[in-house]
Amino acid sequence: MGKNKFNILSIDGGGARGIIPAHILKRIADEFEIDNFYEEFDLIVGTSTGSIIAAGLALGEPVEKIYDLYLNEAEEIFSDKNGFLNRFFKGKCLKSEYKKEKLIELLKNVFKDKKMKDSKTKLMIPATDLTNGDVYIHKSNYDEEFVRDTDTYIYKAVLSSCSAPTYFKPEKIKERYLLADGGLWANNPSLLAYTEAISRFEIEHENIQILSLGTGIGKSYFDMDKKYWGALALIKKLIDSLLNLQSINNNNICTHLLGEKQYLRLNYTSDNKLPLEKLPENWAAKADRIFTYNSKKIEEYFS
């Protein structure tokens, strides 16, 4: 990494599509012989599925272990085996689409009893505070003022950030906060990380360097000739679309603020919508293509 640089790793939300940044990070680790990403980055931030990867790397978990989790478990966590119509006729259409038990089991297996204070580098996990209608950011104790989240279990913080509306029910934290997906306001958390570097650490603008990993951007969520615009038909697509737009907006702002030399964004665009519960077709080829076509930029970033 460049000397005197404040290096940030930012990972988007995107459900099962988290396998894309996980695969890219695995390629980076193999290519540049990186054993511990927490030694390479001053701040790691991840939203929703990105928080799983971010927390794992911040705690020193091998990137291969995180990658294997997505490879073997991602679609099982987010698969809708019953389908919407089946749930509708059983009177369950107003409940969350997926059960948390599988996700909780996996997160506990990965993070065990680790807490936010156990992070080996600065760690941020965005969530949404439904109780107070506000943002909520889980932070490791990299500042003596940060006492609220010190003893929060990592798996609970990640679970709250993963609780996307219609997918998982909100998560209670400390019996005082009802938290939902951080992607509602920070699906691409790069801008959040930039703001923290500027305001909390008083890092000079020119010394900030961000590696931002996306989970894909969809370009087609609604049909021009769609006849039915009722809430039941649209709410899930609308949520996916809003998360998509939030990532695009923050990417545009960070690109404008930092430029390509300080803000390296690795992502891909699809002509179709990208639902959170499914792996993209040919995902391994997509991830390898992203890495290959940006290999020189990545090398410069880690030089």
Written account of the structure:
- By secondary structure, this protein is of the alpha/beta class.
- The chain has one domain (6-302): 3-Layer(aba) Sandwich (Cytosolic phospholipase A2 catalytic domain).
- Helices cover 43% and strands 15% of the residues.
- It has helices at 19-32, 49-58, 63-78, 84-89, 101-111, 154-161, 183-186, 190-199, 231-262, 283-293, 295-301, and strands at residues 6-11, 43-46, 122-129, 134-139, 171-173, 177-181, 208-213, 217-218, 263-266, 269-270.
- α1 (19-32) packs antiparallel against α3.
- The radius of gyration is 18 Å and the shape is globular.
- The protein starts with 5 loop residues before the first strand and ends with a helix.
